[in-house]
Amino acid sequence: MSSNTATPYSSNYECVSDNCTRLLAAQMISNAKSPITSTSYILDNACGLGTVSKQFKLLHPHATILVTDIAPGMIDEIQQTIKANGWSNMYTEILDVRDLSTLRDETFTHVITNLGLPVPGDLESSTKIVNEIFRDSKIGGEDRVWLTAFYNAARAVRPNETPDSFIALKPEIPHASWIIEQLEERGSGNNVEIKTCVTYTMATSLDEMTENMMLAREMFFSRFTKEGTEIVEPRLWNLFSRKSCRK
């Protein structure tokens, strides 16, 4: 995701993704193997609105945190949160999750990359991100969620065309075995643990859910005309409706 793509999305992040981030953050923190203390230095990688860091601060107010994101809009939001809460030991940088070369090796006691892997549209991003996670810390955390509804909606509207490359993904990436292999190759030995986490977005109605998802339309339907995008919205509604009925 480029900064140009991510910045417009930042203002809609709360509606589209934040609940998924919050659920993942809670599980990440509760499952932390290394104790979080006043000497901990945490990297909140691809931080979004800083949801993970907020969870850390609630439970561990004395921990030092660096929050990074490629989108200036996201960083602006978290800087306002830092100021409002008076957090003196939380810092920000605009960085690409695929290139953290300005950060020194083995700097952090905990590295969290929540919904930051892979970077849509970059088929090599997963390997780059794993390299950076491992380089910056001996302890790396990683979780991901993929919005298949967008892909299915795009296919429904344009069945003979490949959807935007933004949602392209190598077939091996969604498998836990790939993550384990990548980290073990970089020297983690057998010290890798994979856990599943069920996440979801919330809305008061299917209409609101569809409207929230369409806030991210610039990322997933950039090549669609206005008329094409208007067709996508009811397709998404139908997809969400079928999932709700099955539950």
TrEMBL record:
It comes from Hyaloscypha bicolor E. Residues 42-140 form the Methyltransferase domain. InterPro entries: Methyltransf_25, SAM-dependent_MTases_sf. This is Methyltransferase domain-containing protein. Pfam families: Methyltransf_25.
